[in-house]
Design a protein that fits this description.
four-stranded mixed β-sheet; seven-stranded mixed β-sheet; Glutaredoxin; alpha/beta; 12 helices; 493 residues; Rossmann fold; 19% strand
Amino acid sequence: MKINRKTHLEIRLQNLLFTLLFLAVVGLLAWLSTRYTAQFDWTAGHRHTLSDASRKVLDILKGPVTITAYARENQQVRQQIRDAVGRYSRYKKDIVLNFVNPDTQPDKVRELGITVDGEMTVEYQGRTEKIQEAGEATLTNALQRLATAGERHVVFLEGHGDRSPQGEANHDLKQFADELERKGITVSIVKLAVASAIPDNTDILVLAGPRTNLLPGEISRIQDYLKKGGNLWWLADPGDLHGLSPLAEQLGIKFLPGVVVDASTQLLGIDDPTFALVAEYPAHPITMNFQEMTLFPAAAALDKTGGGGFDKTPLLSTLPRSWTETGSIQGKIQFDADKGERQGPLQIGYTLTRQVTPPAEPAKPTEAAKQNPPQPAKPDQPGTDKNPPGKTAEASQTNEAKPVEQRIVVVGDGDFLSNAYLGNGGNLDLGVNMVQWLSRRDALINIPAKIAPDRKLDLSPLASGAIAAGFLVVAPLVLIGTGAAIWFKRRRS
């Protein structure tokens, strides 16, 4: 093709047009990047993507969230905070991140108690949480605490060898109690032999496997608490109820004799037959969308009776290959109906509900009633109204309490939340769901505890030696041999 002056001009115009179109496309893409974002996380375990639990917490927050990071002019620290908070702000647009140099505001930092470079405060609807790191587990738990207004008090009964929320022994519940504290739930203890009554601010009373008999006065206080509509969480154990039989009768729950044994656990490599496995759950708010297996060591089977006035719903059922073993758990054991043993599936957990009307609280007198207190009528003044309109009648009114749903959970095992077995399957998440349901925080059910991913690589000594030999000996020898072979080949040619 012969290129003349006209053809050369056309080629230059085509190149110019292509350049202009290319720049226009690049500019359009740059403008679109400021309005829309896309992120792809290909890391193992999706470490840079918000978990479903975090997104569910953000869905509950209906207003703006302000995060203030007190970090010095250290770009590395600030960038880590930006990256962590950015995962939240991309999902919830009204999350605002502000940076404050603590050196410029020492008085405010001292007032807030900021002690770590990069410490943050999270504000939502007038409430504030303080965290020292920008990890997803820490930040999500802080947002979850802010999502619900008002405190929730879980009170554990102590004084009879119960599982303690403050104890670190294998049978105690400290790790579970710490998880509740991280979720904004206040955990405390009460000794009914010392206290005159169960605290009025108790949202859930927990009976966690007493080992000695309760006194009759303690039993009556617990029964009075239930009559007033209090919520109860009973974590029982097989064997003696230690004086709590009247409570079981009041609830309409019967404990079957023996210990639940489950042959299905042998398929999971568990040699102890007293471990009961629960793999399927009913359609209940506690277990809605809950798909993890839970493991219950040494559980008691339950059955319901006709009394109590509660609606009783089975919550935890064992597999068909289980039964209640009433004999010794030694050697080879098998189901024996002649001994009164019951074949699975067995119920080891029940929820109980009923509508109750809390006691009415006296209404506070108005300012008019305070300024004009009612005067007692004299007997010699006929026609005196003992309740003048607008005064005594107004002061004598009471606040009408609305009916509420009383909630109770009875589980035939307390070991599944103990320090020794809390990490088995979904035990921790199931326990948290029970507490959220009992405290009437249904919106927070099925938000599992965020666990940091395991990034540790454990290698055996043989594997470590093979890797070291490969990089320090084999790889250099291969490179040297290859280089020598190439050198000799070139010399011959």
